[in-house]
What we know:
Layout: H1 12-17, H2 22-31, H3 43-56, H4 61-70, H5 72-75, H6 86-95, H7 98-116, H8 127-131, E1 133-141, E2 163-171
Amino acid sequence: xxxxxxxxGQPILGQLLNYLNNAKILQFSHDGxxxxxxxxxxxxxxxxxxxxxxxxxxxxxxxxxxxxMMECRKLQHLGIMDLPRRxxxxxxxxxxxxxxxxxxxxxxxxxxxxRLSSDSPSRKVPKWMRRLQIIDxxxxxxxxxxxxxGVGRNPKTGKKKGxxxxxxxxxxxxxxx
Length: 177
């Protein structure tokens, strides 16, 4: 008796990628210069691998590449025919502009914001609530005790500095940054 190729469910990554348009992603990357000097590892593959890494909570390029090598048969149906090596993934992260992924996010947001909004025509939401925006600024420390334990210089005060400042705007009636 052979293995069944009929699956009842679909993996989370596959469900996420159903909302994305491959042609639009490649067009955004091409317009932003992200496909320059690229042979096989295009923006679609890059985004798919990075989403897989985020869902799996990987911390390093080594973890990402070794996990994708183990899951190579399961990733081919997502459009990834050639799995990236560490150097390829590192080069793609440094060469491909982050603005491309910002455009992808904004396109998704514009496409699906009506579904995300709690503001529907049947509800009576005041006009001021539709215009209300919540602004947040958060610092994400790079030198926590869990990640990057030995990274950074040790200052005289004993506290390592370093982090990322994240600014976000959320429409109050949508709840999506």
